[in-house]
C-alpha cells in the first residue's frame, strides 16, 4: 500500500536479531503495480520467457499486472565479542616456529551431529568425538572457512607472507555442543615486529567466530663479530666484509 511518486526513493529496513548460532535465509519481495490498477501493455503475455515469468504477474485480460523485485537475504550470526586474551605466537627473527592453536566454537547446538562411523577411538570419554579429516565426522553440509584478518593493509603486507595457518583437527562435545578446532600455525619472521591479527572462523551452517592473535618477532641472532685491531696510535685500521641482500 505504499505510494511512490515518479523517481521517488523507498528505503526498506531489514532487521536481523538471531538468538542462536544458526544461518538464516529469507527473501525481500517488492511488488509494484499501477496506482489505477491498470495493466502495463504487453503484446504476448502468454509467451513470456521463463526468467521473466518469475518477476512479473500477468493480468487476466493480458498485459503485465505487477512487477516483482526479489532480493535474497542471508542472515549470518556472529558470536558475541568476548574479552579474550590474544593467542601469542612468538619467534626470533630469521627463525621458524610452529604452534598448535585451539579455539572453541560455542553456541553451535544447531549443527548436525557427527556420524559414529567417522570417529576415531582415542580413549576419550564417550561424549567426545574426534576426527582427523576436516571433511569427515560431521554432516557433509558442514564446512569451516577460516582466514586471518589484519588491522590494515600495511600489517597484512608485513605478515601475510610470514604466517601460515591450517585446520588439522576438530572435536565436538555432544552434550554441550561446543566444537573445538585445532589449527597448526607457522610463523617465520624476517625482522623484529609486533603485530595483531584476528582469526575469523565461519561455519557454513552456524555463523562466525573471531579470535584475537598476537605475533611477536624478537631480535635475531648476531650474524658475526667483527674484530678490528689497531696498528698504532692515530693510524687507521680497516676490515672488509660482505653483505648480501635477500631482495632486489
From TrEMBL:
Residues spanning the signal sequence: none
Organism domain of life: Eukaryota
A single GO BP: sperm axoneme assembly
Occurrences of domain CFAP47-like immunoglobulin-like (ranges): 78-218
A GO CC annotation given for this chain: cilium
Identification of the protein by name: CFA47 protein
Name of the gene: Cfap47_2
Amino acid at each position: 500500500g505504499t505510494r511512490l511518486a515518479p523517481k521517488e526513493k523507498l528505503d526498506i529496513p531489514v532487521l536481523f536479531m538471531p538468538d542462536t548460532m544458526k544461518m538464516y535465509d529469507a527473501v525481500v519481495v517488492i511488488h509494484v503495480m499501477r496506482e489505477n490498477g491498470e495493466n502495463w501493455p504487453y503484446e504476448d503475455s502468454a509467451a513470456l520467457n521463463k526468467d521473466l515469468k518469475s518477476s512479473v504477474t500477468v493480468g487476466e485480460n493480458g498485459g503485465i499486472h505487477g512487477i516483482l523485485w526479489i532480493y535474497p537475504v542471508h542472515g549470518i550470526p556472529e558470536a558475541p565479542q568476548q574479552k579474550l586474551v590474544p593467542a601469542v605466537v612468538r619467534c626470533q627473527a630469521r627463525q621458524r616456529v610452529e604452534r598448535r592453536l585451539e579455539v572453541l566454537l560455542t553456541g553451535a547446538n544447531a549443527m548436525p551431529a557427527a556420524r559414529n562411523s567417522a570417529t576415531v577411538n582415542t580413549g576419550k570419554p564417550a561424549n567426545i568425538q574426534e576426527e582427523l579429516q576436516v571433511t569427515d565426522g560431521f554432516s557433509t553440509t558442514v564446512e569451516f572457512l577460516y582466514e586471518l584478518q589484519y588491522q590494515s593493509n600495511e600489517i597484512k603486507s608485513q605478515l601475510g607472507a610470514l604466517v601460515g595457518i591450517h585446520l588439522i583437527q576438530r572435536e565436538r562435545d555432544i552434550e554441550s555442543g561446543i566444537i573445538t578446532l585445532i589449527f597448526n600455525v607457522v610463523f617465520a619472521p624476517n625482522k623484529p615486529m609486533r603485530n595483531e591479527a584476528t582469526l575469523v572462523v565461519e561455519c557454513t551452517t552456524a555463523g562466525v567466530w573471531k579470535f584475537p592473535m598476537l605475533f611477536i618477532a624478537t631480535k635475531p641472532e648476531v650474524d658475526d663479530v667483527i674484530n678490528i685491531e689497531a696498528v698504532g696510535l692515530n693510524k687507521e685500521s680497516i676490515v672488509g666484509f660482505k653483505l648480501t641482500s635477500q631482495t632486489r
